[in-house]
Design brief:
Elements: H1 2-9, E1 20-22, E2 31-32, E3 42-46, E4 57-62, E5 67-74, H2 77-82, E6 84-88, H3 91-97, E7 100-109, E8 118-119, E9 123-127, H4 130-136
Length: about 140
Amino acid sequence: MSQTRDAAVVEPDPDLSLAEIWAPISGNKNRLVQDDCGLDPKAVIALNEEREEVGDRISLYWGEGATVPEVEYELTVSDLSRQEAGFEVPWPSIKATGKGDIPVWYTITPDDTDTPARKSTRTLVTVEAVTAAVETD
């Protein structure tokens, strides 16, 4: 996938907001604890309607360069009117990366193929909840 390759070489765009990861049970921002174990948190990304357009694609990265294959989100009119996009992050991707302070970022790839992808700065998400997921499998 070209945007995965592009994300490795593109410098972070300081004008892009940081991704926020919201825990499903504890309600923590950028911290997953035992109560959240096994449940998909929500990624929320603030949008700039002057820069993003309907049809642009967001790809989420969890850990050191690993794209989350299930998270390829296409922006809609309602996302732009709310000035944010929100989608779930599948727990298996979180579990595969493990515990610790995990870097999370995203790219926005314009629908226009001549325009390069833009990459956000990394957010650190503290993951404490992986152990129980391993024990309950």
